[in-house]
Design goal:
Elements (H helix, E strand, L loop, with lengths): L17 H4 L5 H12 L8 E5 L5 H11 L3 E6 L2 H9 L4 E4 L3 H8 L5 E6 L6 H7 L1 E9 L11 H4 L4 E4 L5 H12 L7 E5 L3 H9 L6 E5 L1
Amino acid sequence: MLKTTDRAVLRPPNGLEPLALAPHADAGLTVTHIVRKAVQILGPVTRVVVVGIGGLGHIAVQCLRALGPAEVIAVDPDPEALKLAIDCGAHHAITADMAGIEVAWITGGSGAEAVIDFVGEGDVPTASLAMVRAAGTYFVVGYGGELRVPTFNLVLPEISIVGNAVGSHDDLRELIALTAAGVVSLRTRTYGLDAIADAIADLENGRMHGRGVVVP
């Protein structure tokens, strides 16, 4: 038995099993929190780049399509992940090595109004920031790496950098409503308790397209 508060519990909508919703309490919650920030600056004829189409990114593509009119550009090095992005509603799916060139072409050279980075490692933060247009925003969700940038490159074009961690009860409630309405759906792979090592191996080796769920 686990004791908690009513703010930490939501009743699953009719017709939706807990297994289909489980990742929303973590991955989905984080995504909804950042997307609700992003859509405030995204209107018609704007673009948003989603970097990393994994357990979080594939949810982000769907939430962005559901909550705003912006054109969604998905970026990932894995062709299977890019197929998933298109299936989730992305307008464009671009390999990571061509992202800078392709985003510049799509945006007429100006860059995107928002870039959401679900990776945050290696050279991805630097590459992601380079795709942000003047007066745009770089939303950082993934972590583990670092970002080094001359302050002049932020001040003159008035670029904002916004961090994000987890979310709120209201974020989760809105996400569950979107799921119940059929506009957001999880792509999951289930593993038994005796296959946790397999789940970790699939995650580390890029074989988990979507989110893994361990079930008893």
